[in-house]
Specification:
185 residues, de novo design (two linked rop proteins), rod-shaped, single chain, mainly alpha
């Protein structure tokens, strides 16, 4: 025979189980949403990196008439572009940050050489492509900030107790932010 005491214990145990399950599902869904936001933000960063990667050869071609004797500057941009590409493909944000710093420094050096030698009044392909690169860099910086914000939110959920238990069970991992050295772009 079931007494009132046994029934209340059973209902209490059932309520605890239901609450634990609701909490687990909620924590899992929050972790999944944070991971999805991070992945989407990375996709936006990657799209900007791809656009700039594709535009750089045209920009370099436009620079050649103005700095044809500066092969080292061109080589520096190309080497940094390749490093950015390789780090992007590997999704290694630490290497990507370093490569971005190198690319930005190499581009600044090349642009300074070109601007010192070209006619300032000439509105040519160089000026149009330079403007395009500036717009891409601004967009990249904006998207990088959005990605880093998503990473911070994701990593907070993954590392904080008690959701870190769900993260461990669900296979959710912390993500590395995409930082570019200050003063380098």
């Amino acid at each position: 025979m079931i007494t009132g005491y046994d029934l209340s214990e059973g209902l209490a145990a059932f309520a605890v189980i239901v609450v634990a399950m609701v909490w687990f599902v909620t924590a899992y869904n929050n972790l999944d949403a944070a991971a999805a936001r991070t992945a989407q933000a990375w996709g936006n960063v990657d799209a900007m990196l791809r656009q700039r990667h594709d535009d750089l050869p045209r920009f370099l071609d436009a620079c050649r008439p103005h700095a044809q004797h500066e092969q080292a500057a061109f080589d520096g941009v190309l080497a940094a572009r390749d490093a950015v590409f390789n780090a992007r493909q590997a999704r290694d944000t630490a290497a990507l940050g370093r490569a971005e710093s190198e690319l930005r420094a190499a581009l600044r050096q090349l642009i300074a050489l070109v601007e010192a030698r070209r006619e300032p009044a000439a509105e040519d392909t160089f000026a149009a492509l330079h403007k395009r690169l500036v717009v891409l860099e601004a967009g990249l910086n904006e998207r990088r900030a959005i990605f880093n914000d998503a990473v911070q939110q994701n990593n907070g959920r993954v590392r904080r107790f008690p959701s870190n238990v769900v993260a461990l069970l669900g296979g959710f991992r912390a993500v590395q932010s995409f930082d570019v050295e200050r003063g380098q772009g």
